[in-house]
Design goal:
The structure is a single chain. The protein is mostly helical and 130 residues long. It has a single domain, classed as Serine Threonine Protein Phosphatase 5, Tetratricopeptide repeat. The longest helix is centred in the first third of the chain and has 16 residues. The chain is globular, with a radius of gyration of 14 Å.
């Protein structure tokens, strides 16, 4: 794989910062303009995983509507759904489930995360009871 120049790396870091900060409109515009929706950082975190972990349901929805893979795992085997469960963000969990995210995907899975951290509200959402 060719080395990326400093300008390209800075741009990529900016996209990850937009996902972390919840800048849904700006990030969505960049994805629409050609930024890969499943862009990953050096830890395998996708824009979607970062948006989910940092509690930005509108950004999660914008990425999903542009084709983000809800079941993509990072280098530690974690998914956006597991991140949303860990953060106890019901809106993000619901949005990811509606997009087809697998509650049993990843390691630990969203189900295992809810069980481990004793999050009955999240378990109910994952089971379709919420």
């Amino acid at each position: 794989m060719p080395e990326l120049d400093d300008e390209t790396l800075a741009f990529a870091h900016r996209m990850f910062d937009l996902a972390r900060s919840g800048a849904a409109d700006e990030l969505a515009a960049n994805v629409t303009a050609g930024v890969p929706v499943n862009l990953t950082n050096d830890k395998g975190d996708t824009l979607l995983i970062l948006a989910a972990y940092h509690n930005h349901p509108a950004t999660v929805a914008a990425l999903l509507s542009r084709g983000a893979d809800p079941d993509r795992v990072n280098d530690r085997g974690q998914t956006a759904l597991a991140a949303a469960v860990f953060r106890q963000n019901a809106e993000t969990v619901t949005t990811l489930l509606a997009a087809g995210a697998d509650p049993d995907g990843g390691t630990p899975s969203a189900v295992a995360t809810a069980d481990y951290f004793k999050l009955p509200e999240m378990t109910a959402l994952l089971r379709g009871e919420g």
